[in-house]
Design goal:
The structure is a single chain. The protein has 321 residues and is an all-alpha fold. It has one domain: MetI-like fold. The protein is elongated, with a radius of gyration of 26 Å.
Length: 321
């Protein structure tokens, strides 16, 4: 008895894509690097502003931190309009009084005037260092998390090495390498030391985002690697950056003040740390440390308060806590 059934046709196996050529791999990496560079220069400030606005709408900590930081910014603007305070030798090391509310330093300068005038190099330097840490951290973290392979291993080990070193050691290494190091070199060194935290957070988010369904769907629909990275991976990978910028500012101000107070870095003559360093020559002049340290503590506490609120606003599990 013959079998009249038609033979079953098996579907043809899908054709395998040939491995990318060397030129395609180089073009892929170049596209990713270009997108990362644009995002690193643009997105830290944008993400911080977005996280700040989200936190400001429903968190009292964000409003309190913003108010104190706004007052410090106003103090900085006033200090930029004032001339540098002049010293009078006959009034050196006067204790706080009605004539000099914060006392005077060893050169006879009014400490209150020096604190107001020194707000820009201290707070402005901290803000520049925080922005530099965000920019460098975004670039390194995104490249490390997306390129994988040898590039990821090299960048990741570099980030971990920088994170393992104390900030003071990083500053001393950078200032020893750079010829004619100045105050700007100190800011760059602080940014380098604080970028590792941002880089590790961005790398972890990029690794998580690259495996999400919508990213896999975009690849399956034929989107190029650069487009997938720029439009589907990087925007979600930058979510933690906004909340980390205030903490980077807090650390930068504290590190800058400590380094200048100890006299081991490039000292700006008007910075609060340089004013606090005058205590080494006059150990009994407690006001040289007390009042600048009070303003440093206000800046650090308000930025940390704002950072906590921004972190909670970015995390749905913590929102409204």
């Amino acid at each position: 008895m013959s079998d009249d059934r038609a033979p079953t046709l098996r579907p043809a196996a899908p054709a395998r894509r040939p491995p990318p050529s060397v030129v395609e791999r180089i073009a892929h990496r170049a596209e990713v690097v270009r997108g990362t560079t644009v995002a690193a220069l643009r997105d830290p400030a944008r993400m911080a502003a977005s996280a700040w606005w989200s936190a400001l709408q429903g968190d009292r900590r964000a409003r309190a931190g913003t108010l104190v930081l706004a007052l410090l910014v106003a103090l900085t603007m006033v200090g930029l309009l004032l001339p540098p305070p002049l010293g009078h030798a006959e009034e050196a090391l006067r204790a706080p009084s009605l004539a000099h509310l914060f006392g005077t330093d060893a050169s006879g300068r009014d400490v209150l005037g020096a604190v107001v005038r020194g707000a820009w190099p201290t707070l402005g330097g901290g803000a520049l260092a925080a922005f530099g840490a965000g920019t460098l951290g975004v670039a390194l973290g995104a490249l490390s998390g997306y390129l994988r392979g040898a590039s990821d291993a090299f960048v990741h080990r570099t980030i971990e090495t920088v994170q393992a070193l104390p900030a003071l050691v990083v500053v001393l290494i950078v200032e020893a390498i750079v010829p004619r190091a100045g105050f700007g070199t100190l800011i760059v060194a602080i940014a380098l030391s604080r970028s590792s935290e941002v880089a590790l957070a961005v790398r972890a988010e990029v690794l998580r985002t690259a495996a999400l369904d919508h990213v896999l769907a975009a690849r399956a629909l034929g989107a190029g690697p650069g487009r997938v990275f720029a439009f589907h991976v990087l925007p979600l990978g930058l979510v933690p950056v906004g909340a980390l910028v205030p903490f980077a500012f807090t650390a930068a101000v504290a590190i800058e003040t400590a380094i200048q107070a100890l006299g081991v870095g490039r000292v700006h003559p008007l910075a609060w740390g340089a004013l606090m360093g005058g205590l080494r020559a006059a150990p009994s002049a407690w006001w040289l440390v007390a009042f600048p340290a009070l303003f440093v503590a206000l800046a650090a506490f308000s930025a940390s308060l704002l950072g906590d609120a921004m972190r909670d606003a970015a995390d749905p599990r913590l929102r409204g806590g």
